[in-house]
Amino acid sequence: MRRFLLLTLIPLATLALAQPADWPHPSELSFAPIDFSAPEPTRAELSNGVVVYLLENRSLPLISATAYVDAPAVFDPADMVGLASFTASQLREGGSGGRTPEEIDLRLEFLAASVEASANDAFSSVGFSALAENVDEVIAIWRDVLIAPDFDAERIEIERQRRIESIRRVVDDPVQIAVREFFFRLAEGHPSGFYSTEATVSAIGRNDLVDFHARYFQPGATIIAISGDFDGETMVAKLEAALGDWPAAEVERPQLPAFNPTPTPRVYYVEKDLQQSIVLVGHPSVFAYSDAYNDLSVANDILGAGGFSSRIFTEIRTRRGLAYSTGSALSQGFDYPGNFYAFSISRGEATGEVIALLIEEIRRLQDSGVSDAELERSRETIVNSAIFRDVSVAAIAARAARVELLGLPEGYYRRYLENVQGITRDEIQQVALQQLRPDELVIMVVGNAEIFDRPLSDFGEVISIELE
Asked: Nearest-CA neighbor of 399 among 225, 222, 217, 236?
């Protein structure tokens, strides 16, 4: 303690004098490039066809795993939208393997472990996290949640009421309204744009959950990513013992309707008494595994996804002060195209100006391309951020499993980064010209038209939406 107090009393200038004279100035320091290579998981296959990606890491006594199942939300029947996510919630919350939900909760809490399940438009998943010393018991619980759910009737009704209440609250949130209605119009009848209503949730019964699980949760449709403190061969044996009796059966994926990549350009308007407006403009775009996606992701970063330095943010928020939040995004598409869109939460009296500026920035990208500085910044940002995909062995193993489940080519992420590093200004402008359609935008506006600076009809045919 006395040494610390003494140091605090020594002037900083005195400490600086103690630096050896032969030390270089910090600005003169140079370092060899960092060569980082992420570890590669091992692929194994259980006797019933379940694929497993394993990645050992002995640094901490922890093990985590996720089973990815080809049971996405787009498989929901039109009259029971929400079925996949409802099913996933009850895998965990509805009891399994003869254990009541309360017994599972208490046992996992005692073991300092977790088991979770969810579903999205690409897949369903069931994962666990556990201390290595408790992994045998946690795997047994996880196994039952994955393949032997009990679907407790009381828990199902609790979840139903929770979902209905959540649906009712959407109309109170203008951002949720805008997002829901926008993507519904972009999909134009495709299940990727469907959303749950009180009627669709009310139509889902216990037998529907049982049937959805039995139909799609099959060994041949399941890929597991597991990482942590274990021996690979021993872990494969554990998983075989846990899941080997899961009988394999053919999975018949439902025939989804064709996706229309060119929905009718219109302006959709939801009236809400607000001082702000929520604006989204966009259209369906490209598949995630295409070369065009790689180039367009860089173009999108420069346009609006790159945060404070992106064009849309700089022009609409920084220079003009018209928006609270603004930018653009490019979603990934696998079985059907992803979406490109720009957005803004803006002052209501500047709504027309903001829509015009969003469209103008898309056109400027097509007409003028990008500068060397913009391209270099975007490349560095994307490449440097890629290392955060490899911050944990769990993330690396999970990525490998998702690549196979989604049918992406092997080495997809590595080739994406190689493409980004080699992309040119001409390629950016070319992909913008080919893939962005500023004259064919679906436009969604939520706000109060009485205070808008321009009529929405300036941007196309206006369709007013009455909320349910």
From this structure: 225
User: What pLDDT digit, counting tens, does each position of 333-349 carry?
Assistant: 999 999 999 999 999 99
Taking Cα atoms as reference points, which of 404, 317, 413, 452 lies closest to residue 69?
404
> Is-contact 379 298, C-beta < 8 A?
yes
User: Rounded to whole angstroms, what are the CA distances from 365 to 302, 337, 369, 371?
Assistant: 9, 22, 5, 10
Residue 114's identity, in one-letter code, is S
Kindly state the tokens that stand for 463: 């369709």
| Beta carbons of 212 and 52 less than 8 angstroms apart | no
Rounded to whole angstroms, the Cα distance separating 228 from 60 reads 7
CA–CA dist 351, 365 (Å, integer): 22
Which burial class, exposed, middle or buried, applies to 422 when counting CB atoms under 10 A from its CB (0-12, 13-18, 19+)?
A: exposed
Instruction: Tell me the per-residue pLDDT of 69-116, one tens digit each, with 9 for 90 and over.
Output: 999 999 999 999 999 999 999 999 999 999 999 999 999 999 999 999
Cβ contacts of 105 within 8 Å, gap of 6 or more: none
Contacts for 233 with CB less than 8 Å, ≥ 6 apart: none
